[in-house]
């Protein structure tokens, strides 16, 4: 006998977990993943909740708004938030000049220190703590494509009225073009200069529970990447540019592929039906006559290297879309149009041949 749910969420990363957490208030929900909850990129995340320094832009505004909302949420649900503040430093001489310009765009309270900016709200959380506090029904299962029986999606013993794809870099929806970005987090024990807060330069560094936590998202399209001591040593070398480390022992190395969209913004939407929407080639400046969506099929993806802040905002957005039919501002039409203008004609030719 199959297990019937309102929503099956494929992907147990932070985007899938938070989506399930909000939806389970009103619906029967299950998360499916072949590895477990918060494994892969989410399990390897440093979970550094740091502001973004830069010129005023929609992206910078989105990131910084998400940081504030996420910290408040984690505190409310009982996740321990290590709010020590963060010193964001210029990476090189070119950055030093840029920081002079960036100062006028900063909206948070800050102090100028050592050529950088110190923000009180800079925080770190532990992915394991998030998993412990946000409980959602979970089934370990392999996903081998979208399959339907009548009006239901079927995955193993699960039948679902709705399906949410939260598969990160493994997502294969053609127009989304999700890029794998390799990231690592290591923890070391040893001796280093006493530090009272977190740092970010070419990597993020912070002391939590007596260990130095070092993380970075740094390699694109590197599907052959995996955790290794050489990579860990590179992270330690970057950390030494920030603080003096006298002695160390590597206690833990975790790595995973973050999922990045081509325009860096996350995606929250129903899945567009390509064949019904792309009936002819779309030239530059033109739009499709109408956009057709797959029934009861959703996607939440593209959290990038800031998953533990971006995913909170996106999961709330997905909930509002499902519950109240409020169209997400991060919908995928922007990416569909770019894809259709660039690759649409080739797609149509291949389809007709």
Describe this structure in words.
The chain has 9 helices and 19 strands. Strands 1, 2, 9, 10, 11, 12, 18 and 19 form an 8-stranded mixed sheet that branches. An 8-stranded mixed sheet has the order 6-7-5-14-15-16-13-17. The chain has a 3-stranded antiparallel sheet with strand order 3-8-4. It is of the alpha+beta class and 353 residues long. The chain has helices spanning 14-23, 40-44, 58-76, 93-102, 127-133, 229-240, 274-277, 307-324, 333-352, and strands at 3-10, 29-33, 48-49, 82-83, 86-88, 111-113, 116-119, 123-124, 138-140, 148-149, 152-155, 158-165, 179-192, 198-200, 204-208, 211-220, 245-260, 267-272, 293-301. Helix 3 (58-76) crosses helix 8 (307-324). It has 2 domains: 1-47 and 127-178 and 261-353, FAD/NAD(P)-binding domain (3-Layer(bba) Sandwich); 179-260, D-Amino Acid Oxidase, subunit A, domain 2 (D-Amino Acid Oxidase, Chain A, domain 2).
């Amino acid at each position: 006998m199959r297990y019937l749910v309102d929503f099956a969420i494929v992907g147990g990363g932070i985007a899938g977990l938070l989506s399930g957490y909000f939806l389970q208030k009103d619906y029967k929900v299950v998360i499916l993943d072949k590895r477990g909850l918060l494994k892969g990129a989410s399990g390897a995340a440093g979970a550094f909740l740091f502001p973004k320094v830069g010129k005023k832009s929609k992206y910078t505004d989105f990131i910084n708004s998400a940081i504030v909302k996420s910290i408040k949420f984690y505190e409310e649900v009982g996740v321990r938030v290590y709010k020590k503040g963060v010193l964001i430093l210029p990476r090189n001489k070119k950055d030093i000049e840029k920081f002079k310009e960036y100062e006028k765009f900063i909206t948070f309270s800050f102090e100028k220190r050592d050529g950088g900016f110190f923000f009180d709200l800079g925080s770190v959380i532990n992915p394991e703590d998030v998993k412990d506090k946000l409980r959602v029904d979970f089934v370990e299962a392999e996903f081998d494509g979208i399959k339907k029986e009548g009006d239901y999606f079927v995955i193993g013993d699960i039948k679902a009225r709705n399906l949410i794809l939260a598969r990160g870099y493994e997502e294969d929806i053609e127009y989304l073009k999700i890029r794998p970005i390799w990231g690592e987090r290591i923890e070391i024990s040893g001796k280093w200069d006493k530090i009272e807060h977190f740092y970010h330069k070419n990597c993020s560094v912070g002391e939590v529970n007596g260990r130095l936590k070092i993380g970075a998202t740094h390699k694109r399209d590197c599907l052959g990447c995996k955790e290794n001591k050489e990579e860990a040593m590179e992270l330690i070398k970057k950390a030494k540019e920030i603080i003096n480390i006298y002695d160390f022992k590597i206690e833990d190395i975790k790595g995973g592929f973050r999922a990045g969209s081509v325009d860096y913004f996350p995606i929250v939407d129903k899945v567009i039906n390509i064949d019904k929407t792309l009936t002819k080639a779309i030239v530059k400046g033109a739009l499709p006559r109408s956009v057709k969506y797959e029934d009861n099929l959703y996607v939440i993806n593209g959290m990038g290297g800031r998953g533990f802040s971006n995913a909170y905002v996106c999961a709330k957005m997905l909930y509002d879309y499902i519950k109240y039919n409020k169209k997400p501002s991060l919908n995928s039409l922007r990416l569909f149009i770019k894809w259709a203008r660039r690759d649409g004609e080739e797609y149509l030719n291949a389809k007709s041949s």
